């Protein structure tokens, strides 16, 4: 059967993207999904109305240039519209970035573990993957990243805050790193979760972007803005890079509903940031509680908490949460738990206490 169609052999080697599991049901318990880093808060007022209005004319294609969204983002970030590239989520921007830089014979350097799409996109372009293990505390190993660069390297991906481990990249780290990277190699700072970061040292992506012409930002409305289901994100890039990105992004990929919802949400950005900081406060307390319970947590700056566990324990922890109708994300080396409603986090707290007791009994 495998010879039936002329598919690329390389497909067999693609790492799979494993989406966050839906919660299992348990009698009498409301199910919660804490496995995809979604925003659990209700949509901002105005956003749902904007989506409903855009849905009135589904027969028409969206504005292919997302003109209003691009203009508003440019004004918000104080850049030229030519530097903003909208896409169907940050995922599409990341995909486009690999598309304009990678091919067979080139390499891409990125921290690992990090966002699961990085190796998938590298495989899709036929480039050599150079994952650089994170440091013990879940931070990027910048020395290791520098050492992995050679003259085949066309793209470097950084993730701040890092998904799944949580720490953000600091200004000092990024400045030092950029000084070591050849100026013609594109470095991506994936800031999908930057609104949740509270660490005083966290790099300000826009300030860094102004300093380094080869730095591209990938941002999204999926997380702090709570619009994951609509698929809208954007890149901020030097106009030359931005033009190349537009060449490979599918026309009309950002739907009308996504465009207006993002415009509306951006107009309420102050509220978005207040809510993100509330999520961050819940995250810090939750992290502290899990640590007090005896688990090893990292310093997360995203809307999730990372618990380091051996693979067997990670599976047992995931199963214990599932028995309480809470889906969390098990990955190599631990579990990632998205910040969700109090009731869901309380169940995980109880699981954590019982889990540690069972291990020390
Ligand atoms: C680090 C990181 N980057 C990018 C994305 C993609 O987000 P989206 O395509 O929903 O904008 C995600 C999604 O989980 C992520 O965790």
TrEMBL record:
Record Gene3D superfamilies: Aspartate Aminotransferase, domain 1, Type I PLP-dependent aspartate aminotransferase-like (Major domain)
Keyword Amino-acid biosynthesis recorded: yes
Keywords assigned by UniProt, alphabetized: Amino-acid biosynthesis, Aminotransferase, Histidine biosynthesis, Pyridoxal phosphate, Transferase
Listed Pfam families: Aminotran_1_2
Catalytic activity annotation: L-histidinol phosphate + 2-oxoglutarate = 3-(imidazol-4-yl)-2-oxopropyl phosphate + L-glutamate
Aminotransferase class I/classII large domain: residues covered: 33-349
Pathway assigned to this chain's UniProt record: Amino-acid biosynthesis; L-histidine biosynthesis; L-histidine from 5-phospho-alpha-D-ribose 1-diphosphate: step 7/9
Positions of modified residues (N6-(pyridoxal phosphate)lysine): 223
UniProt-listed InterPro entries: Aminotransferase_I/II_large, ArAT, HisP_aminotrans, HistidinolP_aminotransfase, PyrdxlP-dep_Trfase, PyrdxlP-dep_Trfase_major, PyrdxlP-dep_Trfase_small
Obligatory cofactor(s): pyridoxal 5'-phosphate
CDD domains, sorted: AAT_like
Coiled coil regions, renumbered to chain: none
Description of how the protein assembles with itself and partners: Homodimer.
Family: Belongs to the class-II pyridoxal-phosphate-dependent aminotransferase family. Histidinol-phosphate aminotransferase subfamily.
HAMAP family for the chain: HisC_aminotrans_2
Database matches in NCBIfam families: PRK03321.1
Name recorded for this polypeptide: Histidinol-phosphate aminotransferase
Organism of this sequence: Brevibacterium picturae
